[in-house]
Amino acid sequence: MDKTLKFLYGTVPGRILLKGLTARPVSKAAGAFMDSAFSIPLIRPFVKKNGIDLSECETADFRCFNDCFTRKLKPEVRPVDREGNHLISPCDGLLRVWPVQDGLVLPVKESRYSVADLLGPGADPSPFQGGQCLVFRLCVHHYHRYCYFDSGRKGENIFLPGRLHTVQPIALRSVPVFTENCREVTRMETDHFGSAAQIEVGAMLVGKIRNHHGAGPMTRGEEKGMFLYGGSTIIVLLPAGSAELDPAILRASAAGEETPVRLGEWIGTGKGSR
């Protein structure tokens, strides 16, 4: 996989091929296959290769590959921290935290990108000035359902069309993935962290981002949605002074490293309620 990505993102022939692979029709075609019974033979090798424990699932009666990929775990497998001012992870994944300064998210090694571009046309990025950008990268073996990180009220999920680059680090160094890829943006008024945003970013061979709810109330730990097949990313934007992240996560992020996290677990502490 590393050699393939280096070819696609690091050579002229690869970048020509990449234009086709990152197009939405290609992802939709792959998604249609993964939704069909023809994909069932892929399930057993996928489970074995990724060490997935099917006993943790509510059901293992899969009718297609995407049923397995979006498997729902038993609640006790992903307990949710219910302490009001605790910031929890909305998903399983690999977390890095970056500061927001002068309207830009400032990664350690990857290219910079603006909060305004991330949120989409006409969106107000000002609440996040001086705040933090939490990037949760999901690999294929991760649990691909995600939740609300706090209670409060949410706006509509705004879909922004785009391409579907991989979310592997090699792509982040080459193209502004998070502002080019298809994504859904949800603005939130949270009970403990103020005005926030949660953004689900599609990636190569991710045919669908499936969110469950429109505008209205939300509850900490409640399932917000799921990704269908592929690696993906969830981005959480927090306003300045709203939370203190786990120092170990911040040290790892400063060193350019990702921290493994699980849905519902503590990753930081709020500095106050609204």
Give a quick summary of the entry.
Pfam families: PS_Dcarbxylase (PF02666). This protein has 274 residues and is an alpha+beta fold.
SS-based class: alpha+beta
Number of domains: 2
Helical fraction: 10-25%
**Overall pLDDT confidence:** 84
What's the number of helices? 9
Query: In whole angstroms, how far apart are the ends?
Result: 46 Å
Secondary structure tally: strands: 16
How would you sum up the major sheet? 10 strands, antiparallel
**Overall spatial form:** globular
Q: Radius of gyration, Cα only, in angstroms?
A: 18 Å
Low-confidence spans: pLDDT under 50, at least 5 residues?
Answer: 5-10, 170-176
Strand fraction equals: 25-35%
H/E element order: HHHHHEEEEHEEEHHEEEEEEEHEE
Chart the SSEs and their pairings.
Blueprint: H1 2-10, H2 12-21, H3 24-34, H4 43-49, H5 65-69, E1 86-88, E2 93-101, E3 104-105, E4 113-114, H6 115-119, E5 132-138, E6 145-147, E7 152-160, H7 169-172, H8 177-180, E8 183-190, E9 194-201, E10 209-211, E11 216-218, E12 223-227, E13 232-238, E14 243-245, H9 247-254, E15 259-261, E16 266-270
Antiparallel strand pairs: 1-16, 2-3, 2-5, 2-15, 3-4, 5-13, 6-12, 7-8, 7-11, 8-9, 9-13, 10-12, 14-16
Helix pairs in contact: 1-2
Organism: Eubacterium pyruvativorans
InterPro entries: PS_Dcarbxylase (IPR003817)
Pfam families: PS_Dcarbxylase (PF02666)
Description:
With 274 residues, the chain is of the alpha+beta class. The protein folds into two domains: 68 residues, no CATH class; 193 residues. The chain contains nine helices and 16 strands. Strands 2, 3, 4, 5, 7, 8, 9, 11, 13 and 15 form a ten-stranded antiparallel β-sheet that branches. Strand 3 and strand 4 form a beta hairpin. About 5% of the residues have low confidence.
